[in-house]
Design brief:
It is built from 21 helices and no strands. With about 475 residues, it is an all-alpha fold. The chain has one domain.
């Protein structure tokens, strides 16, 4: 239990940085949706989709490979050094290839009138890729507080620059307080360009803060180890691309499958309302930060499978509460999206919340192929999910618009969960508490449907349902501990 408490504690710290950061980012949604048109927000969403794909390609699974070999090899410093030099080399190659082609790529992406956007994106990617492994090292070394500090500094810088460009500068100019400096750096027509400038500065600042993690180790390159790491990580690259396809390709397909006069606006609505799922995704992200090194560290212990099963049970209990809480308080949360034109998309929120809950379940299930070095199965499962995502989006978007994308996401993650579960039963069976898992999922869905039928305008029922759910979980967990103690 002490090991699980450590996981919970570290997840809480990682979660602190994620929650603070992502919530602060979420607070930018009212700002963006009040400043930008639906189409401008759609352009931003499409560009961030490209960033997500590029990050997967440029890190090519080395983060997870680093965790695996750092726990397996006797010299973890050599593992870090080899992996970092590999990322440094491929990042420099990326810059050498892309920078000379900036104008041509901008024209292809229909942003030829703003070539500066792509320049910022390229350097943001470079800095973030080089930061990924030092962040992973902090997790491996059990330094969640330093990890959280740097993350929070990154987000604070990003938020601060957004507020500076989108609130302070316009105010100073409007009130005639702006001096030559403000006029020299601020262009009222730059629009979303300042979002990427903020990302660029915060990414650079983050890399500078992580330099001690890099320079603390004597850099050397072990070619034999590198080949083993690449062999392990290549399926993760394929899986990562498929994962980003599952997460992001719906924006691209909405852009190209819907009528041109409405497509970008529909992408904007979908992306803004998708942000509400942040309350689920930020916990899952925090959980992944703490769980991945935990899973590898426990893999060789006798009680590993029992601990994995216990983690799954707690995970579902907590994410069930998030699903219920967000949905029953949606009338408050939606006020963060100031422009009511976006509110028509709120009906996707329950679907996406449950889909992301299942994605978290899939992360738990994925432990079997990571600790058994069968990462090729991770690639197969992710490609399987990507095919489902693309297929259902192609089938549903023309008639259902972004609702079709939401359902496609749910079908994708539920299918991946089932497939991974049945494969795990064959290769690495884990004694999950199926009865308790079913009870938690059934309870949260049942209480949500009660809210749909009976909810009031004063959130009394919303609060009562959340309390009932927590009470049921506490009673069942207390009973579980009592049974285990008797045994």
């Amino acid at each position: 239990m002490s090991v699980l408490k450590k996981l919970v504690g570290q997840t809480a710290i990682y979660g602190l940085s994620s929650i603070v950061g992502r919530l602060l980012n979420f607070l930018l949604v009212p700002l963006y949706t009040s400043i930008f048109t639906l189409s401008e927000y759609g352009v931003l969403s499409v560009l961030m989709t490209l960033v997500a794909f590029a990050m997967v390609v440029l890190t090519y699974g080395l983060e997870t490979s680093f965790f695996h070999f750092a726990n397996k090899e006797s010299d973890s410093k050599n593992v870090f050094s080899t992996a970092f030099i590999s990322l440094l080399g491929t990042t420099l190659l990326f810059l050498l290839i892309v920078i000379p082609q900036i104008n041509q790529i901008s024209a292809f992406l229909h942003i030829a009138d703003k070539p500066g956007l792509l320049k910022y994106l390229v350097w943001i990617l470079a800095f973030d890729v080089l930061s990924s492994l030092p962040f992973a090292k902090l997790r491996l070394d059990n330094k969640p507080w330093r990890f959280a500090f740097i993350r929070v500094v990154n987000i604070t810088a990003n938020i601060g620059l957004n507020l500076f460009f989108f609130l302070l500068c316009p105010y100073l100019i409007k009130e005639s307080y702006a001096g030559d400096f403000i006029h020299s750096i601020y262009d009222p027509n730059a629009g979303i360009t300042y979002i990427f400038i903020a990302y660029l500065v915060s990414s650079l600042f983050t890399l500078l803060l992580l330099l001690p993690e890099i320079f603390r180790i004597r850099l050397s390159f072990d070619f034999t180890l590198w080949k083993k790491m690449i062999s392990y990580s290549f399926p993760l690259l394929i899986g990562g691309l498929a994962y980003v396809t599952n997460e992001m390709v719906d924006r691209v397909l909405l852009e190209y499958l819907l009528p041109k006069d409405t497509a970008t606006a529909q992408v904007g609505i979908y992306s803004a309302c998708y942000k509400i799922a942040i309350f689920m995704t930020l916990f899952i992200q925090a959980f992944r930060y703490g769980a991945e090194p935990f899973f590898f560290a426990q893999a060789q212990k006798e009680e590993a499978k029992e601990q994995y099963a216990q983690v799954m049970r707690y995970f579902i209990a907590f994410t069930g509460f998030i699903f219920l809480g967000v949905n029953v308080y949606i009338d408050i949360i939606k006020e963060f999206i100031r422009n009511e034109a976006y509110h028509e998309g709120l009906k996707i929120v329950p679907i996406l919340l449950f889909a992301n809950l299942l994605l978290g379940v899939y992360y738990n299930l994925s432990v079997w192929y990571k600790v058994t070095e069968k990462t090729s199965y991770g690639a197969y499962l992710s490609v399987f999910g990507a095919l489902i995502t693309i297929g259902f989006n192609l089938a549903l978007i023309p008639s259902m618009s972004y609702m079709g994308s939401a359902w496609a996401t749910l079908f994708c993650y539920s299918s991946m969960c089932l497939a991974s579960y049945f494969l795990s039963r064959k290769h690495y069976p884990i004694p999950y508490d199926y009865k308790r898992i079913f009870i938690y999922l059934f309870t949260t869905l049942f209480l949500y449907f009660v809210w749909i039928v009976l909810h009031d305008d004063y959130f009394i029922l919303s609060t009562l349902l959340c309390v009932v759910y927590m009470f049921i979980v506490m009673i069942l967990e207390k009973r579980k501990k009592s049974i285990n103690f008797k045994h």
